[in-house]
Amino acid sequence: MPVIRSVCVFCGASRGRDPRYAAAAAGVGRRLAERGIQLVYGGGRLGLMGAVADGALAAGGRVVGVIPRGLVDRELAHPNVSELRIVDSLHERKAQMAELADAFIALPGGLGTLEELAEVVSWAQLDLHAKPIALLDIGGYFAALEAFLDYAVAEGFIAERHRRLLLRDDDLDRLLDRFAAWSPPEGRFPPPDA
Ligand code: AMP
User: Fold this and answer.
1) Is 42 near ligand 1, meaning CB less than 6 Å away?
2) Which domains, from first to last, does the chain contain?
């Protein structure tokens, strides 16, 4: 069972339309800090990325940002994180974020968030890591993605046991407890029709 000391959060570089998103992201940062869990994230100060980092920092948490050199100005690297790692590429960002984390949480976001999430889940299904991954839902944001994944299972493109690699919750404390009790499902590979 994993000991969760460091959580990687994938989330939007935008704040979204509803102010609840940023408020919830800040709450996630704060709660991680209160539980003594390090936050690893993309290193920006905009959008939900900034909100989650600010929430953690305000509560005295340790925050590691990992940002590619080319995005330092565009995404506005956060000036106050505990540690800012400036890397050469998006690939290196994802690799470092994954290495530094014991678990992954996706908050609402756009294509970047989806891409990061898809990579860690697809790597888990290939047994390339065994760390828990979850959607932390805010206001039902992920309902359509969940419905799509269920449809992909029904249509034979995702195995049920791989679908279960992606947890979903709307409460961070409960989710962290589920992470701590999590063990990877048996027999994750091969693909469904093999
Ligand atoms: P978004 O969800 O589109 O607002 O993007 C959230 C974060 O994901 C931003 O920091 C993007 O720079 C980042 N991102 C977008 N594409 C990638 C990628 N291929 N690899 C790593 N990070 C990415």
Assistant:
1) yes
2) 6-180 (3.40.50.450)
